[in-house]
Amino acid sequence: MCSPGCVSQSCDRQSGACSDGCRPYWAGEYCDTCDSSHYGPTCSETCSFNCNNGCRPDNGDCLDCVEGMFGSKCNKTCSTGCVYGCDQFTGQCTCKQGSQNDSCVDCPDICNNQICDKLNGYCLFGCQTGYWDLNCSSSCSENCLSRNCSFSNGTCDTCIRGRYGDKCDKMCSPGCVSQSCDRHSGACSDGCRPYWAGEYCDTCNSYRYWPTCLDTCSINCTNGCRPENGDCYACVEGMFGIKCNKTCGPGCLTGCDQITGHCTCKQGWQNDTCVECSPDYYGVFCNKQCSPNCNRGTCFGNNGTCDRGCKCNIMEELIAQVQHLQNINSHHILHAVSVLFCLSLMINIFVSIRYFKNNIYKCKKEQPRQHEKKSRASTNNENPDQFIYDCAEMEIDYQNLSELRRSQHHYEQLG
User: Fold this and answer.
1) Distance from first CA to last CA of the chain, Å, rounded?
2) % pLDDT > 70, the chain
3) CB-based burial of residue 402 (10 Å sphere; 0-12 exposed, 13-18 middle, 19+ buried)?
4) 189/201 Cα distance (integer angstroms)
5) CB–CB of 3/23 below 8 Å?
6) Cα–Cα distance for residue pair 82/230, rounded to 1 Å
7) Residue among 58, 90, 53, 57 nearest 72 (CA)
8) pTM beyond 0.90, yes or no
């Protein structure tokens, strides 16, 4: 098979030599290898420009490196401490003064006097300001005053204002005067700012709360409030709520529960918070008792009007029994019917008595005349006693009505 590098894939039948020469980047009599500047299976990859005298056609490794570079592809730089370049494969070289180890690496600039151990690179005279550890590769905390810290462990010599701790990574309390605190413990050096308290000035005094201790506890708090949220520990008498900003019910006997507002009621008040009158009391202060003439002794709390109507002396017991058996909402209708019945009965009795009384008076007035007529009528075979019988019946009815009236009066007294 002719080489893929032959132009037109054409080659001598006997030897295989390319008849028309090689394609670009290919070389050799049989065009079966790359030229000195290319590599790869198709000779399309270019050798590193740091290669000297080209590269291997199979993998691109440089045959040699330009001065100052090393590595298989000549892509690494020799140390600046080397006198004349370095070995192509190891990077080792002859060192200038002040450089150390086989690769002549310079001592770090941050080593004091740029002097270090030539075997391990440790800075022999410590680090410049702001650095620490053996080869000065670690930075001192920015919270160290002037960035000064221990060469061996990085502990700050002194902290900037407002910081404490070995690495000055903790903040003094905002309650410290001048934001100044002990370097090790964090205790405020000059005491607390106004309204702050505690050894570390990290909490508010008993009448202030967070976050700046400028907010004042409610005037209704007793013994101050919680510094984290201002909730009262306890309330003055008559107030309740977490901030003691709610008023206990007007009927509470002695204050109320701080959370719920529940309390023991004075006489005349009712429910858990004592904010309304008992059924048998009324008035702004629930100190007036409902009229004894109110049905069941109850009335409206705002004006004392009987809420179940007034007692009916004749029908009261009957109404009470009916109310017990029926829905309580019908008691007003029964009461009204009973009152109308009482009034109607009394009016009928009164009218009837007046009627019979007037007629009896007429009968007595006519009796002498009727006796004369009787004597005349006897001679004429008439019925002279009819009028007398009528009058007698009226008088009997009148007596019955009077007895009924006395009975009614008796029932009213019993009621």
Assistant:
1) 140
2) 73
3) middle
4) 10
5) no
6) 72
7) 90
8) no
